[in-house]
Prior knowledge:
By secondary structure, the protein is an alpha/beta fold. Among the domains are: 88-132, no CATH class; 158-313 and 375-383 and 414-461, no CATH class; 488-594, CATH 2.40.50. Helices cover 32% and strands 17% of the residues. It has helices spanning 38-48, 55-80, 100-104, 109-115, 119-131, 134-151, 169-176, 183-193, 199-211, 225-228, 248-257, 266-275, 291-307, 340-344, 385-388, 403-410, 428-438, 458-461, 568-571, 582-585, and strands at 158-160, 166-168, 216-222, 261-262, 328-337, 357-366, 369-370, 379-383, 417-420, 449-455, 488-497, 511-522, 525-526, 533-541, 544-545, 556-563, 590-594. Helix 13 packs across helix 16. The radius of gyration is 29 Å and the shape is globular. The model is unreliable at 1-33, 83-91 and 310-318 (pLDDT under 50).
Amino acid sequence: MAEEIPDPIVGGEEPRKPTHSLPRYSEPTPETHRKLSREEEAELALKQSVYTPGARSLLIALFLITITLVPAIQFAVELRSPRSSGGVATFDLYKAYPAWTRIMSARSAVDLWHLLPRAADLKAAEKRLETESVVSAWLLPRVQSLLTGKLEAGNEQVFPGRDGWLFYRPDVDYITGPAFLDPAQLRRRAHVGRVQPDPVKAIVDFRNQLSARGIDLIVVPIPMKPGIDTEKLAPGAEQTAPLHNVSFLEFRSRLENAGVRIFDPRPLLIQRKASLNNAPLYLATDTHWRPETMEFVVENLAAFISSFPASASASASSPLASTPSLSLQVVEKEINGVGDIARMLRLPPDQTQYPPEKVMIHEVSSGNTPWRPNKEADILLLGDSFSNIFSLEALGWGESAGFAEHLSRALGGRALDCILRNSDAAFATREILARDLSRGHDRLAGKKLVIWEFAARELAFGDWKLLDLRLGQPAPARFFVPKPGEQIVASGTVESVSSVPRPGTVPYKDHVFALHLTDLTVAGQLVSEPLESLVYLESMRDNILTPAARFRPGDRVTLRLRAWTEVADRFEKINRSEIDDPSVQLEEPCWGEPITD
Length: 597
């Protein structure tokens, strides 16, 4: 082996030359500093472990007892307390597989292959078993109470802050994470997440389609709680400027250069915070803003709208041309609410560490009735849970006091049309609008202005789909929909279902999912045409899965159906998932309620 050549010595002494003629690097250098993977570390640890007599057998026995005890307890409890909907949840994994009748009707191995459950179906069944685990339901709140109370630890969705404050992890990740407009990050999200990740591209495309119809657009990204009330998360933080993702200023600049109007409330909120001696502007245990903060932003948005004339592509008159105004009244009401982040901790019901928070909302009404949107209005508001938080009672902070209600008031009683959805603000409200248009329902008729409000975290994590806003022709109904005012009892076979979130894993305690029914019968008679129906149902209420959430492809179910239009005002704002099939998504839906024996 070649003799090692020492480093040069300071002072002028020449290094010694090798005593033979072999090349200096005739042998490879060992990888002494290579980082080991977790699997390699575990393998090395196991190989070097030394067990005392009997320890190996004891550990194996404890492991086997642990993995068998949990399902045994679950099975015993369910045998003693069978579900009202029938069946034992522990064995519901079989529902991920096709019904026996469909297997028997297969004509070839290819048909059988296509009937095998998808990975998503098996994952959904696994999540459901995990959600309904008796051991998990008993153990998780107690363990989380110990972790939160004694160790001040959250969970995978929650970061504890100071003074009893809680922060939603995606909000923190949005601010501290990589630049959402970085080309490498855009490519990674497009490849891994299979989404359209560029918000600028989607917003400019949306604006261009609206401009073609003479409609203006104003974009309103709502800053995240950790960027405004930063001192509650980072002790000693000096809040002289709002915190945001490093790409936000580039995002705003690119929109402005493209001629898109953007109302950015971040500087205004920091100024307000300073004027209030650093008083909090967001709710302590919720992802959303306080009602007075929302009203402050609404007042400034109304002034922003009034200060701009219509764009050249829009109508010649101002977006706020004179229209009949509503006579609105405002009533103050005290609300005690528990934040959505506190609910995600899944602490015991009697926990006192995060008590209800008191706020004062201002309910808006017209005469003796709560304020309601008007589809004939010339302004359309697209919004998410920041618009719904004081408007949708299911969120726990009152109703008739939200973003739309107060914007209507701030604009002098002007009527507004609204499409609001709690989640997926990057595409959900635009998707509802696009589907209405494709069905021949022109939701943009007579509109002069669209206001698009969304949580800023969507810039980094949302799917910014490019959606076509072309107006379609009303097509003959293929799917069964009850007439307005009718309630029809129907039975059908579940062809497919949309996804249902696990309780406690999302900020919203209610959820609506979609069901595609085939082989439809009404009042015991086979319907000749159509044979199918697209149905929306409640899948989660107050963080508890409903019996309908148990439906799986192949099940035969009986539902009470009514027209979706009769309940849309109540349920359209709630977080909702859709059937994967685009052709089914375009069908007219109805509302369903399970009928059990």
